[in-house]
Amino acid sequence: MSASASPQTGVKLPSATDAGQPKVAEKSFSKPAVNIIFFKSSTVALAVPEGGRDFLRSADEGMTWEPAKLLDPLYPIKLVGMHDVDLSRAFFFTDNDIYVTTDRLESKLDKIPTPSHYNELGAQILDHHPTEKEYLVFVGGPRGCPVPSQCYTEAYITFDSGRTWLNDGKPIETWATKCLWGWDTGFTDKETDLPKDSVICASYKFKNGNIGMDQIGMIGRNDNPLQLVLITNKGKDRRVLIDQVDSLLFVAVQDNSGNLRVRVSTNGKTFTDAKFPPNMKLEKNAFTLLESNSGGVYLDVAQSQMFLREYGALFKSNSNGTFYSRILAHTNRNERGVVDFDKMKGIPGILLANEVTNVKEMMIGGIKKVQTKISFDDGAHWSLIKAPAKDSDGNTIQCTGDCSLNLYNKYSEYGYGRASPHTSRAAAGIMLAVGSVGTSLAGYNDCNTYLTKDAGLSWTEVHRDAHKWAVGDHGGLIVLVNDEKATDVLNWSSDYGVTWNPFVFSNQAVRVLTVTTEPASTSLKFIITGTRPKSTDRTIETVLISIDFSAVLPRACDKPKGGKDLVEWSPVGDGGKDRCFLGQEIGFWRKKDDAHCYIGREFEEDFGTLDPCPCTEKDFECDYNFFLDPSTGKCQLYGADPEQPTSCKAGDTYKGHSGYRKIAISKCKGGVDLTTPIDRQCSGSGGPSTGTGNVKVTSSFFRHKLADYFYFNQTRTIMMRDEAGRVWKSDDTGQTWSQPDMLKSVEVTRMLQDQHHAEVRAYFISDDPVLFYTDDAGRTIKKTDLPSRPNRLGVDALVLHAEEPSYLIFVGDSGCGSTALGSCHAETHVSTDLGHSWTKVMSYNQRCMFARDKHFTAPSKDTLFCQVFDVTSGDQRSMAIKSTKRKLVRSTNLGKSWSTVLEDTVGIALSYEYMVAATLPPNESQLHLFVSTDGEKWVKGSFENDEQIPDYGYTLLDSSSGSIFLQVFSSRRIGAEYGALYRSISNDGTKFKVSLEKVNQDAKGYTDYEKLLGVPAIAIANEVINAEKVDAGVAKKIRTKMTFDDGVSWVDLKPPATDSQGNSYNCNSDCHLNLHHFTERTDSNDLFSSASAVGFMMGVGNVGEYLTQYNDGDTYITKDGGRTWREVAKDAHLYEFGNRGGVILLANNEVATDAVRYSLDHGETFAELRLSDALGGGGGKMRVTNIITEPHGSASSFVVFGVLSGGASAGEVAAVFLDFAGVWGGNECKMDGSNPAASDFEAWNPAAASSVDGCMFGEKTEFFRRKSDRLCKAPETFEQPQRASTACACGEADFECEEGYVRDGRTSKCVAGSGHKAAAPVCVNGLLRSSTGYEKSRRTRCQGGLKLDEPPEEFCTNKLSWVTWLFVVLAAVGIPAGLSFFMVNSKRGGRIRLTVDSDGLFASEPTTVSERIGRGLRTAGVVATELLEAALATGRRWYDAARNRLLVSSGYAPVRTSLDDAIDNDASLLDLNDEEG
Q: How far is CA 408 from the centre of its chain?
C-alpha cells in the first residue's frame, strides 16, 4: 500500500495480541482541539482539551489515558505551565488562583497563596530560578482594569514556592512588563558577583495613572519609556541599569532621536552598545532575535515590512554579542517577524535559512521567490543544497537551470495544524523537511518530503507529497503521515529512511493535526492528534491515537563500545577521512542501518578526548563592518573604514583590519591565521563617492502619488497619505512602508497631526462619521464615533487643544445630503474625553477654535471662539460673506454659554501672541482690524497715514519675531494678485506701517513671504515691480527682496559673479537674483531654509531684471543668511538639507532622471548617486515630485518620491530611501570650545558680512555649524552652545522711521512723509518733547551709542502758582528721603512685562505704589531743578541718578531675550470673497 492510499474494505487494525505489529490505542473528544504536554524525562503526559476541562493523564506515554481527577475541582483551567528546573512540577491557573503539582499529578496538588491575582495584561506570570526550584518571581495584576490608576502589574518574589513572600509581602516592582531572575541570563555569582536573589525587570519609568498598562500595549512609549531595573537584597534594593529600553530579553534602547540601539551585558550589571555596520539601523518591531547557542547572537533585521514583500538581513555577533556582521543579505520573513531560519540540533554550527532571490522584482509587485541555503561553519559561508538525483520512485529528477533543493524552513509557517520540528537533539545529523527541487521553493501542496542523515551534506526524497513526521529512538524510528489530505495510513522506517513500511493506524481517515513523541526522542511511542467526522451524526470530533512500536523492535541494541549494533558517525565529507568540524574532531554514536533493535535510552559513553585540529580558512568568518563578497569569496569592507587614520592621504597605506575573525565555537589551534592586520589603501577625503558607495538605498513602490505626509517628532515614524486616500506608515524614516490594519479599507480625506503633541498624536478623517487616531506615534490606530459626518462647508472639521489632548472640537453638518438648497448647516460639538462623548455647542457657524495656545496663554483652557451667522435657519451654503452678517462669540465654559465679542466679523486668526479679527460694518467698503492679546480686550488697529484696508481681505503671516506681519490684498484679479505687507510698530500690535509694497500673492491669499529659519528677523519676499501695468492687464514682473532687520528695510538679492560653469551672466546694469517663492510650490513643506542648517538657503531662480519661468531657472545656495549667493546646478532642482546642512540633496525637477546629486561640504562640490537599481532596472527613470526628510533637518536620511517612466513599471510611484549615515565612516563631529582650530564646528555671525562691527539688532550673535571641510556626522541631537551675546553700541541700524516718516532714498535719513506734519512740541516732565522722526527698533538690544529718538534737551518755561512753590520747597526738602524710599521699593516691585512681546522695550503705566511715588518725585525733581538750579545742584544730581534708576526698573531699558527661530508654516488666511460650499 502506498503512503497516501486509503485502506481497503475489511482491513483490520492490529490488536495488542498481534506479534510484531505496532499497538494502537484511540481516544476521541468532542472538543475541537487537544494539546499534548509531556513531563520531561518521564513517561507521563497530559491531554489538554480546548476549553480547559476534562484533562487526561497518561503514565505510559499516551497508550492509556485516565481522567486527571486531581484537577476536577479546578475547572475551567485557563493556563498550564511546566517548571523549567524541577521537571516533575507543573502549574495550573484558574480564574483566580494558581495550583502546583510536585509529582506529575500522581497524588499531590497544592494551591500557591499569591499576594494578588495573577496579571492578565500580557506580562509573564511566573519565572523559575535556574538553580533553586523553590524560588519564584510572580507578576500579579488587576482584573478588568476599572480605572487607569489601578491598571498595572506588581512583581513579588518567594524562596519557598509562595508560602511566604519576601520584602514583607510588598511588591519589589510595579508597572513591570517582565521580571526574570538575574541568573536566568547565565550570570552567576561565581562569574560576575551578581547575587543569587537578583531580579531584573523591564518596567515603566513613570508609574502614573494617566494611561493604564492595558492601553500602553506592554511596549515603551516616548512619554513613558521602559527602564531596565536590577533588584537585589530580597527585593529591598533597586537600581536602574538602563533608562530607556524596548525589551528585556534582548535589551533594545531607544534614544532621543528615535533610533534603536542594542545594549549588551556580560555581567548583568553594566551594558555596552552593540555595534552594527554603518548602513544598518534597527527599528522597533523590525528585528528578530533567533535561537543561539553557538557562541554568538543571531539577529535578523527587517529590510522591508510591506505585506507579502517582507525580507530581512541576518547578522551574527561575536562571542560576547557586541559586534555584528551580516552573514546573509535577503532572508525570508513574514509580517509577524518570523524568519526562515533553523539550526541542526545536536550539532552546533550547521544552519539553514531561506533567502529571497528576486527582491527588486518583488518590491515592484512580483511574487516572492525563495531559495534555501545551508552553512556548515556557523554562517561564515553559505551554499545551495545539492538536489537529489532521483525521486522517491527511483526516477531521475528533471530540472533545468540553477537547480537546488529548497525547503520549507520555519516549521510554524505552513501545513495543516502544527508542523513538525525538523531536527531533534537526540538524533544528531538527521533532518526532515518538506520542499521541492528547482530554482525556487514551490507551493506547499506541490512539494514532497526529504530527509538527510548526514547533517545536510546529502538529501533523499523519501515520499511524495508533504508530510508531518516524528523521530524516535535517536533517529532509529521515523514516522511519516500525509499532510495534504485526510489519511488512515502512516509510514515508518527503522533504517533512516532506506525502506518504508505502511501501517493502518485508524479505521477511518483522519485529518492529522500533530505527530509527537516524548521530547527526548528516545521513545518508540508516538501520538497522533487529528479530526474526523463522527460515524453517527457526521459532526467533527477530535481523535487522539497512540501508537507503540515496541513490538516492532523488541531487542535492545548493544552498548556502543564493544557491541555490533552501533557505529561511530561524523558530520564531515571526504568519506569520513577528515573528522575535523569547526576546529575539532567530532563524532556521534548511531544505530547501524541494518540493526533491528532499539536504543531506548540516553547515551552514556562518549568518544573520550577529541583533539583540536589546525585552523584553516573554514574556521574564520567576516568581522564587524565587513561582509562576504559572493563574487570573490573574500570579506570586504562596508564602505569607509572607521579605523583609517584621519591624517591618511589618498594613495598612502596604513595597517588595517584584515576583515576576519575566528569563529567563536571553533576549537582549532595553530594553522592558518586570517586575523593578521593587512596594508590598506587610504581612501582620502577629497569628496564623496560617485556611486552608491556608503549610501544605503532601498525602494518601495505605490500605485498613487503622495498627497501629504508628516513625521512624528523625535521618532523615526512617517505617516503618508496617497492621492487615493490610502494611509501608509513607515517606522524607519521611509525605508519600508505598510498600511495600518485599521486604515486599510478607509479612504482618508485628511491627516491632521497634533502640532501641540507632535511626537505621538495624529488624527485621520474620512467622509464617514468615524474618527481614527493614534496616541503612540502610529503603533496602534484607534477609532471613535463622530456625531455626524465631517462638514463639507469649507470649515475645519477637527480642532485640537494646545494643552489638553482629550479636548476636541468637531464641526459636522446637518441637512446637507442633497445638492438642492434647504437647511444645510454646520453643527459643532465639543468632547473632553477624546471623542467618547460629544456635546453640541453651536450651529450655523464657520470657524471655531480653542482660544488658548502655546503663545496665547491668557485665556482659560475652556475658552472657545466661534464665528457665527446671525441667522439660525436656511442653507448655509448660500450665505455669502457680504450678505449674511456674522459675529464673533466667546465661551469660557466649553460652549455652555456664549457672549458676543465683535459684530460684523469676516475672519479671525491667531498667530503667536496676537489674535486678530476683521470686521466689515454694513454699507462700508473698508475693513476694520481688531487685535487682542488676551481674548477679552480688543483694540482697533490703525494704519500709517490713516490708510484704509480694502475689503479684498488679508493674510496674517508669521509673527514669531514679535511683530505682526499682515498682507493686505490690493488686487484680486486672476493673474494680477498682489498686496501691501504691513508690520506692527506698537507693543499691543494695533499700529501698522507698510513694510514692503506690492508683495506677490495668489488667488487664495498665499503670499511670497518667508522667514529664514534659525536666524531672527531675516526674511525673503517677492515684489511685483510693475503693479501699475499689471492693473492694466500686463503680466506680473517679480523681483526678490530680503530684509535683515525684521522688515524695516528691504534690499535686492545680489547676483553671483559667475554661474556654476564659471561663465559670466549676460545681464545689464539692472541685474538681480530672483527666486521662485511659496505661491509656486506644490509641497507647502518645501522651504528656502532649515532651522538646523543655520544660515543656509536654497532656491530656484534666475539672474536678471525680474523672475522668469520656473523651468528656465537654475539652482542657487547661500551660506551666509542671504547676503551672497552662488549657483550650484543648472536647471531647476528640488532640494533638502540633512544632518544640519552636512548633506544637501538635489533632484532634477524638470525632467525624469535616474540619479540624484548630493554634497557633503555645504554645496562646494556635488557627487552623483545613481538610482537605476532602486528603480527596478530596465532603463526606467523617475520624475521626482517630492523630497522629504524629518522636519528639523537633523537626520541624514531622505525619501525621494517620483513617478516612474520607461521600464516595466512605468506609471508607478517610487519612494527611494537614501541614508547617508555611512558616508562619514562612523566619525561624529566634536565640539571643542577650548580649541577652535581643532573643533569640527565653527562660529558664524549672520551680521559679519554687512556690518563693520558685526552687530545685528544691537548685539553680536554667533551660531555654530559644522566646518565645510570636516568629513563627520553632526549629532542629530546637537544643540547650539549657550554662549552669551555681546551688546553693541546703538547705531543708525538700531533705529527705524517713526509713523509718518520715511527713509530718504539719497541720504537714508528719516524725513517726514508726503503730507505729514510733525506734531507740536509738548512739555513732559518739565522738558520739551518733539519728534525726531526716529524710534528705536523693538528688536534691538543695543546699549549706549546714538540716541536718534531723543531730541535735544530743552526745558519748559511755564509760570508756577503759589501751590506749586510750596510743593517745590517740600519736594526739595524731601528729595533724599523720597528717593531712598523709591529706590528700595522699585526693586521690590520688579519689572512689569507686557503680555504682548517678550522683546518689547516699553512698559505699561505704573501699577505699584512705588512706581507712582517714583513718577511724582521725578516730576517734582524736574520742577525744583528748573527753578532752583543753582541752589539745588546737588539735588539735581540726585534726581538724575534716581531718574536713570527709575527708567531701568520700570522697563524702559532694552530687554535681553533669547533668539527665537520658530516659524508657523500655516499662514492664517482671511479671504473675503470666498463663498462657502
A: 34
Question: Residue 1327, class by beta-carbon neighbours within 10 Å (0-12 exposed, 13-18 middle, 19+ buried)?
Answer: middle
Return the C-alpha torsion angle 355, 359, 364, 365, nearest 10: -20
pLDDT, residue 1414, reads 36
Query: Using CA atoms in the order 1076, 1082, 1083, 1087, what is the torsion angle rounded to 10 degrees?
Result: 0
Residue 1428: pLDDT band (50, 70, 90) is: very low
Q: What is the rounded average pLDDT for all residues in the chain?
A: 80
What whole-number distance in Å separates Cα of residue 528 and Cα of residue 505?
9
Contact between residue 502 and residue 487 where contact means Cβ atoms under 8 Å apart: no
Kindly state the DSSP code that residue 1223 receives in the 8-state scheme: G
Which residue, 867, 718, 739, is CA-closest to 795?
867
The β-bridge relationship of strands 782-785 and 770-774 is antiparallel
Of 716-725, 869-878, 1049-1058, 1270-1279, the one with minimum mean pLDDT is 1270-1279
Which of 356-360, 729-733, 970-974 has the lowest average pLDDT?
Answer: 970-974
Helices 1409-1427 and 1433-1449 meet at what angle, rounded to 10?
150
Helix (H, G, I), strand (E, B) or coil at 766: coil
| 297 in Cβ contact with 321 (< 8 Å) | yes
Flag whether the pTM goes above 0.85.
no
850: amino acid identity, one letter: F
| Coarse DSSP helix, strand, coil percentages of the chain, rounded to the nearest 5 percent | 10, 35, 55
How does pLDDT run across 1360-1397, given as a tens digit for each residue?
A: 444 444 444 444 444 443 333 333 333 323 222 222 23
Residue with cell 531675550: 1457
CB contact at 8 A, 911 and 931: no
The runs of H, that is alpha helices, within 964-1060 are 1027-1031
Q: Which of 990, 985, 1047, 986 is closest to 1016 using CA atoms?
A: 1047
Task: Give the percent of the chain with pLDDT over 70.
Answer: 80
Cell of 1475: 463663498
- How far, in Å, CA of 167 to CA of 545, rounded? 49
Q: Which residues contact 65 (CB under 8 A, 6 or more apart)?
A: 25, 27, 47, 56, 57, 58, 544
Written as one string, the DSSP assignment of 1436-1471 is HHHHHHHHHHHHHHTT-SPPP---------SPEEEE
Largest CA distance in the chain: 142
Nine cell digits for residue 1116: 542657487
State yes or no: pLDDT of 562 exceeds 80. Answer: no
Q: Classify residue 386 as exposed, middle or buried by CB count within 10 Å of its CB (0-12, 13-18, 19+).
A: middle
pLDDT at 300 over 90: no
Residue percentage of the chain with pLDDT more than 90: 36
Residue 386 pLDDT greater than 50, yes or no: yes
The answer, yes or no, to whether residue 114 has pLDDT greater than 70, is yes
CB 379 within 8 A of CB 371: no
d(CA 1184, CA 901): 49
Cβ proximity of 952 and 969 under 8 Å = yes
d(CA 208, CA 152): 9
The DSSP element (H or E) to which 1423 belongs, if any, is helix 1409-1427
**Nearest-CA neighbor of 70 among 87, 43, 90?**
90
Residues with Cβ within 8 Å of residue 265, at least 6 apart in sequence: 185, 187, 241, 251, 271, 272
The DSSP-derived string for 595-623 is ---B--S-------PPPB--B-GGGEEE-
Q: What is the band of 282 on the pLDDT scale with cuts at 50, 70, 90?
A: low
Amino acid letter, residue 475: G
- Specify burial of residue 808 (Cβ count, 10 A radius: 0-12, 13-18, 19+): buried
The residue assigned the cell 598612502 is 652
Q: Over the Cα atoms of the chain, what is R_g?
A: 40
| Confidence category of residue 631, pLDDT binned at 50, 70, 90 | low
Dump pLDDT digits (tens) for 158-190.
999 999 999 889 999 999 988 999 887 655 555
